[in-house]
Automatic annotation (TrEMBL):
Upper classification of the organism: Eukaryota, Viridiplantae, Streptophyta, Embryophyta, Tracheophyta
Species in which this protein is naturally found: Nicotiana tabacum
Protein known as: Uncharacterized protein LOC107786316
Domain of life: Eukaryota
Length: 407
């Protein structure tokens, strides 16, 4: 390619990126720009070049990396002023260099009060024990479970046979302790080594039936994995641009979920409605024998379960573990012609869903419009020591592989 041609291409990319960076509807990531440039102009641009072009264009809008860090204190100040209740905390080293940062929007903090009290943390972050310690300090009653997906991956790496892995999955998922014991004794019979390996980790940490706390349906950290994949490409953007990206993303999620919650005709969330519906057909095949106004004996394939609507418990344990009616409860509720939503935990109600996404996530707006006290403006933070960053941060393929190996 000739020099002037190369120059024209660069200008084309920069122009395109700048137009779209300003448009909050688009997430300008290298992958996005590469696809768009191919689609619009038939250009095949390498990842590295696209990445640099985005850095360059971002710098024009939100400043260079150095300027980004210099503005960080002011940005956080504006974030808090536009979003009351927002919490931010930055750690810097002795030379004022950025080390790490934590922040939570006021709207997220308020919404969390209406969510099931489960915190999922990526395994990569848990290597920093301080997070686990921090949670134990803030929530002394909390129970630390581990992700069964990751545990299963460990079994696969140890070349455990698939039939044993299936037994493990059942052992982890069943609600009744009795059933857990049966699956575990099966495992010990076919593969004693794997049984011992599993028991090294206390079952309270990975088996639902042994957990001392409600873990609902959250046996894995999938939710973190999906969050990570959303943020993966934004991580490569300059810090303020990345924070803009997160703000736009959260704002959109809050808006979409609020809309969905407002639009539903049910008293429970759509997910719960689906879960209940899935079980209705099966519930109809069960025999229900009322014992008193709350209790029923429910027969399923010759096995009797005692179910109590007042205490919201059932012999199958699912009612009390998930805080949602199990099939036995559904059968009993239908027999009495009452609303199933009366027996779902508050976490699952439409009103909680609405409360979770009640508030908005506001952008900080253009720098020129900021009103920041001098004491905040003068807190200049320096960029982190980039020399310590491995160069795979610049190489997308290697970065992806690195990510995969870490998880
Ligand atoms: Zn039941």
């Amino acid at each position: 390619m000739k020099a002037d041609q190369r120059h024209a291409t660069s200008r084309l990319i920069s122009g395109y990126i700048i137009d779209n960076l300003r448009d909050p509807r688009f997430e300008v990531t290298p992958a996005f720009v590469m696809v768009e440039m191919h689609k619009l102009h038939g250009l095949d641009i390498g990842y590295h070049k696209t990445w640099r072009a985005i850095q360059h264009a971002s710098a024009l809008i939100r400043g260079t990396p150095k300027e980004n860090y210099e503005l960080l204190s002011s940005y956080l100040y504006m974030m808090k002023s536009k979003n009351p209740g927002t919490y931010t905390n930055i750690k810097i080293d002795d030379n004022n260099r950025f080390l790490y940062m934590f922040y939570a929007y006021g709207s997220s903090i308020a919404g969390w009060n209406h969510c099931r009290p489960v915190i999922a943390i990526d395994a990569t972050f848990l290597k920093h024990q301080s997070i686990a310690h921090g949670i134990a300090k803030v929530y002394p009653e909390s129970h630390h479970g581990i992700c069964i997906y990751h545990l299963e991956q460990n079994l696969k790496r140890r070349k455990v046979k698939s039939e044993v892995i299936k037994l493990f999955q059942s052992a982890a998922r069943v609600y009744m302790h009795k059933e857990f014991d049966l699956y575990m004794s099966d495992i010990s019979k076919v593969d004693k080594k794997t049984f011992d390996y599993l028991m090294e980790e206390p079952p309270e940490r990975w088996a639902r039936s042994c957990s001392p706390r409600r873990i609902y349906d959250m046996l894995t950290t999938n939710i973190v994995e999906s969050m990570n994949s959303v943020l993966l490409e934004a991580r490569e953007l300059p810090i303020l641009r990345m924070m803009d990206f997160i703000q736009v993303k959260l704002q959109r999620w809050f808006y979409e979920r609020r809309n969905e919650a407002e639009g539903t005709f049910y008293d429970v969330s759509c997910w719960v409605e689906e879960e209940l519906k899935k079980n209705i057909d099966l519930a109809f095949t069960l025999n229900v024998f009322p014992v008193d106004s709350w209790c029923s004996r429910v027969e399923e394939q010759g096995v009797t379960f005692l179910m109590d609507l007042n205490k919201r418990t059932c012999d199958c344990f699912q009612f009390q573990f998930d805080e949602l009616p199990c099939i036995h409860a559904i059968a009993a509720i239908d027999k009495r012609n009452i609303k199933k939503s009366n027996f779902c935990s508050d976490w699952y109600l439409k009103k909680s869903w609405l409360k979770t996404y009640e508030r908005q996530i506001h952008p900080v707006g253009h720098k020129d419009s900021w009103i920041v006290p001098e004491s905040v403006k003068s807190k200049i933070i320096k960029p982190p020591d980039f020399k310590v960053l491995p160069d795979y941060y610049l190489d997308f393929q290697k970065f992806r592989t690195f990510q995969k190996n870490m998880s």
